[in-house]
Design brief:
The protein is mainly alpha-helical and 819 residues long. Among the domains are: 223 residues, Alpha/Beta hydrolase fold, catalytic domain (Rossmann fold), CATH 3.40.50.1820; 288 residues, no CATH class. The protein has 23 helices and seven strands. A seven-stranded mixed beta sheet has the order 2-3-4-1-5-6-7, with helices on both faces.
Length: 819
């Protein structure tokens, strides 16, 4: 019997360097330092690229016999950038900021009740923002336009397009109820648009299943407790987003229905018979029950992260929006009932609506602060921002943004409809609720208060730069001192340190906003009810001062709104502007939509599964070594993807981060997910990790993880920036101060990458993949029934890498990545 032919094996030296860019994005040509690149997997939104000559590198082992890794680039910039129209996402900034507050809770051990309460409070706060946005749209369309302007002969005469609604014309649409029913189409369309965008973006970006991180390298379930970002369902919030989307959509429609039916019901109770009054009471009772159902759905269930939850709550998702639309239709029909003697005078009761929303938001923020303090006291840490109050402070900013945007739109529309008249003056005055006028009046006060910390930071930065001058010269010992050069380096370091002062500024702004908001609420309750005027009936000097503050605040709101949209549009077109504000936007959209379903889409729910699937499939197919190299925000994506890997795959992966905000931003603001505990656990789980940073970097910094369990310290000592101080024979021209960019230009980068590859165990000899690998435990084999398989396009995915640790020899490659 002839001897069995040995199965062919893969090359034992396979190694891959997976590059992940950071904020602002870049091109695969720049990342790979080669003008000829090819997409090997992915689509136009996010994809993996290689140099053309490396497209089939695994089949050409002789080219990498010296141990050099194959460079491969993951480009995800199209997930957060695009054409200028996408700047309209910035209009949903309050929703994004509220969603951030959900993830800012302090870490908690054995405090499940407090954690659940924290999540419920944030979700309720997010619900009030949806109601506030819808109420602002109702204020503009129903109150200012259909009720006040169409009911005023002067305003309707100046606006010809309102002629068919004018009460003076006496047409069919001239009755107030019918005008309100017709105007309700505008806020209802806005709510429908938000629902559509939330549903479409989830389908496009967030419906990507991660690999089964609960399966170990030998195919057995991994039952060890996992950090939050390593749980199977963390990046798959399908169930919660669907529930919240249904609840918020219903809340928006119910708000519109209440605005339409409320005015008609109040008229019927005072001027109509008992039958019609009873009908109004019944409709309002149904709206109240709908509001209770929405609140119950929002409070009942939070995120499910311990398992991949594919279920949907069909009852809530299906009937809640439909029932709210039915109530809106009934409200429109009820309001459209003929009432010949009804005349629209004054304003709709917007003061009560906005006052209740503002009061509810203040109570929720204070309750959130109490819960956060309780959580922080159980596990205090000096690096946590604002002593655990970062979440409530950011939630307060979300409420302030929502109030400013809603009040600004109402003020500007009122000024436009009122023509040359000043709001609150003249015959038939047209103006927004008094509370919105008060909120506009306190904006100049808030800006004056902000000047104090800004001035303090400016002086402190100048003093810090002067103090750092001798420190900089001492680091470049032997160089001839140059005052201009030293001042420039020291100034860059001092300005980079301003990032660490952000918590203080946020705390001051949030505290001042809370106090001024309470003052505006009290002022609205105590002042007169003339629409568009914040203060009436007092001393002439006080009244004129309040009127000037109101006018200035109104114009500041309008100017800020235009500037906001303009800068947002520029950020999508201009790379420099995007790098300036991109880190804030990318931090906000990194997190899943756990509190507000109308927030901008989470790009990480696409990017993290992409990276995890690629690492698991490549190591499982080749048995090779892999170093994932992430810059800036790319380092956060890399760390999150490593957390999602099976334990066997993590043993074959090294992590290289540079310019990383993992501890400086994420660890301080999101301590429950990137604090010392989770980062320390990642250090113990990943085979090896190295972090590069500079003192001139305003975003990146050290991760502060010491040597542990035989593993060296994660942080490299601070890199010199610039590399040389003056002119040398090797650097005859002045070297730039790189700050946050181009870490690959430092010789330390290639050296540390080589060291990481050397620490990884050698590549494993694996059988050639002549047959498809079996599915992971718990996964169905969709190839037998023609179903959609999330592993489509990944050849030989095994989701694991096994083997005993050993010694390896590898050399660095010349791949580049850019942030």
């Amino acid at each position: 019997m002839p001897p069995a032919t040995p199965e062919p094996t893969r090359p034992v030296g396979a190694a891959l360097e997976l590059l992940v860019h950071g904020v602002g994005g870049t091109t695969p040509e720049l990342m790979l330092d080669d003008p000829r690149t090819v997409r090997i997997t992915g689509d136009k939104t996010a994809a993996m690229y290689r140099r053309t000559v490396d497209q089939h590198a695994e089949e050409e082992p002789e080219r990498f016999a010296d141990g050099r890794p194959v460079p491969e680039a993951y480009c995800w910039c199209n997930l957060t950038s695009g054409n200028g129209s996408r700047a309209l996402w910035l209009l949903l900034l309050p929703f994004m900021v509220a969603n951030l507050a959900h993830w800012m809770r302090p870490p908690a051990e054995r405090q499940a009740g407090s954690v659940r309460l924290y999540g419920v409070l944030v979700r309720l706060l997010a619900l009030t923002l949806t109601v506030l946005l819808t109420a602002a749209a109702c204020e503009v369309a129903l109150d200012l336009t259909a009720w006040q302007c169409a009911g005023s002969a002067r305003c309707a005469q100046e606006r010809s397009w309102l002629g068919f609604l004018s009460a003076a014309q006496g047409g069919w649409w001239s009755q107030p109820g019918r005008r309100l029913a017709l105007a309700a189409l505008v806020p209802a369309a806005l709510v429908g648009l938000l629902w559509y965008l939330s549903h479409r973006t989830w389908s496009a970006y967030e419906a990507q299943r991660p690999p089964r991180g609960d399966v170990d390298g030998n195919g057995t379930p991994d039952r060890r407790p996992r950090p939050a970002l390593g749980r199977p369902g963390f990046w798959y919030g399908r169930r919660l987003v669907a529930r919240l989307r249904a609840a918020h959509t219903a809340a928006g429609f119910l708000t519109v229905a209440a605005a339409v039916a409320g005015a008609a019901a109040r008229h019927d109770r005072s001027a109509a018979g008992p039958a019609r009054a009873a009908l109004g009471w019944a409709l309002e009772a149904a709206l109240f029950l709908g509001a209770v159902a929405v609140t119950w759905v929002v409070c009942r269930r939070g995120r499910s992260e311990k398992r991949l939850d594919n279920r949907l709550d069909r009852a809530a998702v299906s009937w809640l929006p439909g029932a709210s639309i039915a109530l809106l239709v009934l409200a429109a029909l009820y309001a459209g009932w003929s009432r010949p003697g009804w005349r629209s005078t004054g304003t709709l009761p917007g003061d009560t609506t906005f006052s209740v929303i503002t009061l509810a938001q203040g109570v929720l923020v204070l309750s959130l602060a109490v819960v956060s303090t309780r959580l922080y006291r159980r596990a205090p840490h000096t690096r946590t921002v604002l002593w655990g109050l970062g979440g409530p402070a950011v939630a307060m900013l979300a409420c302030a943004l929502g109030g400013v945007m809603s009040g600004g739109v109402a003020q500007r529309v009122a000024d436009w409809l009122d023509g040359p008249a000043t709001p609150g003056t003249g015959e038939d005055p047209i103006g927004p609720p008094v509370l919105l006028s008060w909120q506009a009046s306190v904006i100049p006060v808030l800006l004056v208060l902000l000047l104090v910390p800004v001035a303090v930071l400016a002086v402190r930065t100048a003093l810090t730069a002067r103090r750092l001058a001798p420190v900089v010269e001492a680091e470049y010992e032997g160089e001839r001192p140059d005052v201009v050069r030293t001042r420039r380096i020291a100034g860059t370091r001092a300005r980079a340190a301003l990032t660490d002062a952000a918590p203080v500024v946020v705390g001051i702004v949030s505290g001042a906003t809370l106090l001024l908001g309470a003052g505006a609420l009290a002022g609205a309750w105590l002042s007169g009810t003339v629409p568009g005027k914040a203060f009436t009936g007092g001393h002439p000097f006080v009244e004129s001062t309040a009127e000037a503050a109101q006018a200035l605040g109104s114009w500041l709101i309008g100017f800020g709104f235009i500037l906001f949209v303009t800068w947002g549009r520029r950020a999508y077109k201009d790379a420099s502007a995007r790098r300036t504000i991109g880190i804030l936007w990318d931090v906000g959209t990194f997190w899943p939509r756990a509190a507000h379903p109308f927030a901008p889409p989470c790009y990480a729910e696409r990017a993290v599964p992409d990276l995890a699937w690629r690492m698991a499939s490549w190591t499982g197919r080749t048995g090779g070594r892999l170093v994932i190299s992430g810059h800036s925000q790319g380092s956060v994506l890399a760390a999150a993807a490593v957390w999602q890997l099976p334990a066997g795959t993590r043993r074959r992966v090294a992590l290289l981060t540079y310019g990383s905000p993992l501890e400086r931003l994420y660890g301080r603001w999101f301590p429950a997910y990137f604090g010392p505990g989770p980062l320390g656990e990642l250090h113990r789980e990943v085979h090896c990790w190295r972090n590069l940073w500079r003192r001139t970097d305003p975003i990146g910094g050290p991760v502060k993880l010491p040597a542990e369990g035989g593993k060296p310290e994660v942080d490299h000592r601070a890199l010199r920036d610039p590399v040389v101080y003056g002119r040398t024979s090797e650097h005859p021209l002045p070297e730039p101060i790189l700050g946050h960019g181009d870490y690959q230009a430092d010789p330390v980068f290639a050296k540390e990458r080589t060291v990481l590859l050397d620490r990884l165990p050698p590549a494993l000899p694996l059988p050639a993949p002549d047959r498809a690998a079996p599915p992971l435990p718990g996964q169905r084999d969709d190839s037998r029934n023609g179903g959609d398989d999330p592993r489509e396009g990944v050849v030989g995915f095994r989701g694991q890498g096994s083997g005993e640790p050993g010694e390896g020899d590898a050399q660095g490659s010349s791949g580049r990545s850019s942030g």
